[in-house]
Amino acid sequence: MAFVIREEGELNGWPNYSWAVKRLPEDMAKAETVKQALESAAKIRGDKTYAIYADTGDKMTYSELNKDANKIGNALIEMEVKKGDKVALYLRNSLDYLRCIYACSKIGAIEVPVNWFYREMDAKHIIGNSEATTIIVEQDLLSIVEAIKGDLPNLKNIIVRGDSSEYTTLDSLDGKPNNPEVEVKPEDPMAIIYTSGTTGLPKGAVLSHTSYVLSAKAISLWMVDETANDYTGLPLFHINAQIYSSLGMMFAGGIITLRSLFSASKFWEDVSTYNCTHFNLLGSLANILYSLPPSDYEKDNPAKYVIIGGMPVEIWRKFEERFGVEVLEGYSTTEDPLPCLNPPGKYKKIGSFGVPIFPDLGHEAKVVDEKGNALKPGKIGELVRKNPAQMIGYYKAPEKTAEIRKNGWLYSGDFVKMDDEGYLYFVDRKKFVVRRSGENIASWEIEDVIKSHPKVADAAVVPVPDQMRGEEIKAFILPRYGTELKPEEIIEYMAGKVAYFKVPRYIEIVDKFPYTPTGRVKKWQLKEMEKEKEDHGWDRDKEIPDWRDRFKAR
């Protein structure tokens, strides 16, 4: 069912692209690549502040970002980085991270963000699979790169953010300040963003400049105003902060206020201090904010709108009333970043993540059954979408791309339902992943590490409900015959091998598993059993509250 625009020019069901771009300056409306967007923004807005780093108060103007991106980009060219080469960014949120993203866009290099919590196993896969020739890395993460560089034959350049006597430093990159003479086309790849699935290693979604630009223009609709200021503590290695907050605000003409990491205690202080008018949140982070005691900073705060993914309906109104902001729910995926959004004002529907933006560009959504047949309104099925901003495909994995792209439609792996007016409602995740604070964590990854422990015979990982994080990880573990295994041993073992957020919070030692005839653990039974429980058993955070420090977890 197609959503119908009721009143042209009003933000009711989200307007057509042809109308929306009229709200942008002409050069911004014409921009088709990230490179063009920055150059036009610098020309139009010049010395206007573009970004603020909330941790220090440091600021950067549109012109400064453009000049710095040019200098870094031209320096990379001098290091023989060519159009189409992959540049891994193993960085934490910072103004430098923004400079590096846009530097890649200037020279047609393909940015490959690496989750800064990743340790050797995950980092090696992403850097190696992407065939990155260059990496820009935080000084304190350099030891990880040095430990794995022998297994990365394509890696030629290591650039350090910070001091280094052995490697080139980011601060020393001082290329020409003029725009690099590299032709970048809308269809060229802009980034490879890695996303975990339920089977196999993380897959790299190749996103074009078109993916970035259309998605950013879409999100800018709700904040096109030079007084707008978008606040985020979400990581720049995901599309939310990188496309929606950073590039979206560039099209809007306002400011992005960036914190190194989400901080509930600093949130409203930052919003008030920097006069932030908009922010994006994951549902789990919204729950954390709502659970905190009232603060002076939250009163009369300047925020107008918040886009939240996955907010429980029961606290939606309460969140709006307490904090004085209008909540809009949205939906997108790494592979399909052009969002669906719940329109603000009188056409908003509580509990819905809205409708596809820019229907005149062919942005369509439908709900289908297991055979791909469209379902009637109210019926639950898988969400499939079609639009020009979808990923080019998974990098070096055409068979994986074919699994989710069928007849031009991209299959989301999420169960939803649609009402009579085309509004969409999230029901559940089809993929068996743990969604913890916005991180999609594949259960098999955790299981494989647990099973490598010498005392473990088998393991099964399931998500369990959690008010703060959305979901937490619970591991059921079957010890080897004749061994005695304690949960603490698993925590210590895993803390040195995986990112901290992949270490199970709950552990249950079992003496048997329910198996299918083919020998697979019936994990759905374990998951359903946990849904009915308030107490999920042995709790890492209660039993070892200082586990991250004790076991040096990253």
Keywords:
554 residues, alpha/beta, GMP Synthetase, Chain A, domain 3, 9-stranded mixed sheet, 5-stranded parallel sheet, 18 helices, 28 strands, 30% helix, globular, disordered N terminus
What does this structure look like?
The longest helix has 17 residues, at 62-78. The model is unreliable at 1-12 (pLDDT under 50). The two termini are 46 Å apart. This protein has a domain at 434-550: 2-Layer Sandwich (GMP Synthetase, Chain A, domain 3). Strands 2-1-11-10-12-13-14-15-16 form a nine-stranded mixed β-sheet. Strands 4-3-5-6-7 form a five-stranded parallel β-sheet, with helices on one face. With 554 residues, it is of the alpha/beta class. A hairpin with a 5-residue loop joins strand 21 and strand 22 (424-429). The protein is 30% helix and 26% strand. Helix 3 (34-45) crosses helix 4, helix 4 (62-78) crosses helix 5 and helix 8 (209-220) crosses helix 9.
Q: What percent strand? A: 25-35%
Q: What is the 3D form?
A: globular
Q: Tally the helices: what do you get?
A: 18
CATH homologous superfamily placement of one domain = ANL, C-terminal domain
Rg result: 23 Å
Give the strand tally. 28
Sketch the major β-sheet: 9 strands, mixed
CATH architecture of one domain: 2-Layer Sandwich
Proportion of residues in helical segments:
25-40%
Mean pLDDT: 90
